[in-house]
Structure prediction request, 372 residues.
Amino acid sequence: MTDTLVFDAAERLFADLVTPALVNAAEAGTFPDALWRAVSENGFLDTLAVGDGLSGVVDAVAILRAVGRHAVPLPMAETMLARWLLASAGRAAPAAPVALAPVEPGDRLEAGQDGGGWRVRGTASFIPWARHATHLLALAGPAAFLIPIDAVSLRDERNLAGEPRAHATLDARGERLALPFGIDRDAVLRFGALFRAAQMAGALDGVLQMATQYANDRVQFGRPIGKFQAIQQQLALLAEETAAATVAVTAGAAQIAAGGDLFFAAATAKIRAGEAAGKASEIAHQVHGAIGFTHEHALHHLTRRLWSWRDEFGSESFWSMELGGRIAAGGAVAFWPLMSACVGHGGFARPSAERLVLSPCGRGRGPTQRGG
Prediction:
C-alpha cells in the first residue's frame, strides 16, 4: 500500500532528524530550518495538493501519523492544507510556512472590496505557527485571501505543548483566491480536525511504544514490571485506545479518498482520537511513574501534544454535538440511510481534478450545519 511506503519514508526521516534536544529547542523558540528543508525536499508538504481531487489524503494522513509519533515541531498539517488551497486556486505556494485562519469553530472573518482590491477584517484565535509564516491564508465567505504576515497584528501565545500559537487581528488587504465550489472554511476546519486526529494517532503509537519499552526495562521486586498482571492490563487498554484511534483516522482518510463524507470522517476521527488521548496519557504516566513527569524524559513531548491537539480544530465535544445534531435532524427513520450514505457516498463526491461537489449527505439539514 502506498500509505505504508509513505509512512515508512516519513518515519525514517523523522527518526534520524527529530531528537529530544531539537524538540526542546523548538519549544524554546528556535525554528528547525534544516528539518523544514528536509520535509520540503521530500515533497511531504505537497502531498494533499498533488493528484486528482482528494487522492492524496491517505498519504497525507500517513505522514501526519509519523509527525505525531515523533512530536515533529513543524506546521506540517497547516502547510499541507494551505498548499492544497493555493493549488486549488491555481496559485503557487511560498517556500516558507503558510498560516491558516480561522482554525477555531467559532471564529469568522469578513471580506469586502476596498478600492481595486479586497480587505479582510476580523479576529482569529490560536493560529498555529503564525509568527514563523510569511503569509496568512485567511478564509472569508466562499474565497480565500493571501495576506503578508507583516500586515497582520499578532499576539503570541503557546499551547500546552509549547507550540507557537497566535491571536490575530486583521484589517488588511489581501490577494483574493477563487476556490472551487465545495472548498471553503468548513472544509478546512474538517480537514484540520482529521489531520490533528492523525497526529494524535501517531502520538498515541509513540506513547504505547514508550510505555511498553519502559515496562520491559523497569525491574521491581526482582522482575520487569511488565510481568505484573495489573501493568499488562493497563498496556492492553493503551493498545486498544491506540488501535481504535488509528483505525478511525485511516478508515476516514480512505473514505474521503474514495468519495466519502468529509464531515462524517473528520468528526468520527477527531472524537475517537480525542477520547483515546485522555485515557492513553493517563495510563502511560501511571506505567512510567514519577520518571514520566520529569522534563528529562521524552514522554511529555507526546502527552502534552495529545492534551493540546484534542482541543484544536474543534474538541471531541464540539464534533460530538455537530455529529449528533446532524443525525437528530433526520430523525430515527433516517438514521440508517444517513449512516450508510455518509460512509459510502456523502460529503465530497467522487474526486475530480477539476471540481469537488457536495453530495446530499454533505448538505443535509439542521441548525448545526454550516455551509457544505
Summary: Residues 344-372 have pLDDT under 50 and may be disordered. The first strand starts at residue 98 and ends at 101.
